[in-house]
Design goal:
mainly alpha; 0% strand; 158 residues
Amino acid sequence: MDADADLGERMVSLHEVIARLRRECPWDRVQTHSSLAPYAVDEVSELVEALQAADDARVADPREMATAIEDLVEELGDVLLQVLMNAAIGEEAGTFTLAEVLATVEAKMLRRHPHVFERDPEAPEPSDAELSVQWEAIKAAEREARANRIAAREAQSG
């Protein structure tokens, strides 16, 4: 099986595991976005520690690298679990789906990296200074678009 098919199957399988937990586990069933927030903060903090430990092990003692990578993989999974649990809550409420989360982050990465996805391959790579200017312009456009969405919602409800 190729890596992409395996990745897709694993994502679908984990999505199904989360859905079953939400249906059948008393603790998971009652969780809300708010109740999961402290766990998300804890998991991200643990991920930050694992990221640093992996970098430190790579530099200081390559023999410790395997353990540090195992820890990193576990912490990445814990953060992914938080994303999937919150997506399951959104799906149950009919407010958003995991597919929308994935599509949103993909669109964001494409939008924020025109120097990768829109650049003529023959053109030179932009400098750090050019990337910084580009980043600020993209972020400003995103902030404006968000403000416009909020204003439109307020106008509809008010």
